[in-house]
TrEMBL record:
Pfam families, sorted: Peptidase_M20 (PF01546)
The protein's name in its UniProt record: Allantoate deiminase
Keyword vocabulary terms for this entry: Hydrolase, Metal-binding, Zinc
Organism: Pragia fontium DSM 5563 = ATCC 49100
Cofactor, free-text remark: Binds 2 Zn(2+) ions per subunit.
Binding annotation for Zn(2+) 2: D90, E125, H382
GO terms for MF: hydrolase activity, acting on carbon-nitrogen (but not peptide) bonds, in linear amidines; metal ion binding
Family note: Belongs to the peptidase M20 family.
UniProt-annotated binding residues for Zn(2+) 1: H79, D90, H189
Domain of life the protein comes from: Bacteria
Length: 411
């Protein structure tokens, strides 16, 4: 039987393995504290009979050998690292649920045909190297040995050097699993949004992980005295920026209320002085949608508005696309299997898109991949107050287990 108290004990133990911070959890990839967290999970894996190992990047595996060694592997997990002053569930919950599923399989004496692996990814948040999804990108082969010299930590050390310290005395295997035979990757994760709680739904079955574009905008006008230049003769870069942001926001809000998000998280003016007309305004745009076509439509609209605002305010606007990532669609067959498992277990569910990136989007390049979302309180995440009900952790584990058993018997 799935034991809620074991789920709770693991989450609380990992919550306590934290660098000092403001009431939350700080366990950043490749640090001593991260090593402690990994050792905790490794021990729990070994206790329930899993064989543990780490790959060259520090991703942690716990393996339950299947009856048929030639059968493709089933993998489930999430990340073990956190941002600074994070909650206790983001990522960690997915590892803890996958581990509990392994315990229950063992306790019930179930012999899986397929090998089942519990996986804890390192450095998903990118807090140490500024590279999100680092662990999974080495697994998928997107990143290779040469990148270990290219990536530099916050403390100005190359990844290769950081790894040689972090991995001291630990035997490792190559990270890349491109040529491995993997049947499916399943990631349980808290929703990090409010929809499941607000609609009183047990489970979110992820359809796609959103397309994401990040842009930086720089507007050039002409500085002047706040008291002497008449309003109609100004080239006010600040006002132009405000106008552009306001036009874009209301367009997305009106046209794509539940389908896209448009966020300006940084906004700055030069010379940034109370009695000066700004000659420069620069800001960032973070644009996301589950549908690539919507992102493209908003980017087209941005080009139209750019011309309009340039004319209206007599400024020039540079639009730089810093990143442009396609949506990642989760495997249809797995989504179906998860839905059938929900039906069997009497769990309510809805389809949902993930507005945040996850290791699953990288694993989808390797094998059939799906994500199971469980509710979190008010969608609060990357914050000490992040909270998942223990009962929801149990439901997520129950669903994961059922899905693993179905996969095992159907393939
Ligand atoms: Zn996460």
């Amino acid at each position: 039987m799935i034991k809620t108290e074991r789920l709770q004990a693991d989450i609380e133990a990992l919550r306590a393995i934290s660098d000092p911070c403001n009431g939350g959890v700080t366990r950043i990839g490749f640090t001593e504290r991260y090593r402690q967290g990994v050792e905790y999970v490794k021990q729990r894996m070994q206790e329930c009979g899993l064989t543990t190992y780490e790959d060259e990047i520090g991703n942690l595996y716990g393996v339950m050998e299947g009856q048929d060694s030639s059968a493709a592997k089933i993998i489930s997990g999430s990340h073990l690292d956190t941002v600074r002053n994070a909650g206790a569930f983001d990522g960690i919950a997915g590892v803890v649920c996958a581990l509990e599923a392994a315990r229950v399989i063992k306790e019930r004496g179930i012999k899986l045909k397929h090998t089942y692996e519990v996986l804890g990814f390192i450095e998903e948040e990118g807090t140490n190297f500024g590279q999100v999804l680092l662990g999974s990108r080495f697994i998928s082969g997107d990143l290779t040995d040469a990148d270990k010299d290219r990536f530099i930590s916050k403390d100005k050390q190359p990844l290769r050097e950081v790894l040689s310290n972090y991995m001291q005395g630990i035997e490792t295997v190559p990270a890349c699993r491109k040529n491995d035979n993997i049947l499916a990757f399943l990631e349980v994760h808290d929703e990090q949004g409010p929809v499941l709680q607000e609609t009183n739904t047990d489970i979110g079955i992820v359809q796609s992980i959103v397309a994401l574009s990040q842009l930086s905008i720089s507007i050039t006008g002409f500085a002047g005295h706040a008291g002497t230049v008449p309003m109609n003769l100004r080239q006010d870069a600040g006002l132009a920026g405000c106008s552009l942001v306001s036009r874009m926001t209301s367009y997305v809000l009106r046209k794509y209320t539940n389908e896209a998000t448009f966020t300006v998280g940084k906004f700055s003016l030069l010379p940034n002085s109370s009695n000066c007309i700004p000659n420069n305004c620069s800001f960032t745009i973070d644009l996301r949608s589950g549908t690539q076509a919507i992102v493209d439509n908003v980017l087209d609209y941005l080009q139209d508005m750019k011309k309009l605002v340039e004319q209206e305010y007599n400024v020039t606007i540079d639009v730089n696309i810093d990143s442009y990532k396609d949506e990642v669609v989760m495997d249809q067959g797995l989504q179906q299997l998860i839905a059938e498992s929900c039906d069997k277990l009497g769990l309510s569910y809805r389809n949902i898109n993930s507005g945040a990136g996850h290791d699953a989007m990288i694993m989808a390049n390797l094998c059939k991949t799906a994500m199971i979302f469980i509710p979190c309180d008010r969608g609060i995440t990357h914050h000490p107050l992040e909270k998942v009900e223990w009962e929801d952790m149990r439901k997520g584990t129950e669903l994961l287990l059922e899905t693993i058993l179905r996969l095992d018997s159907q393939f």
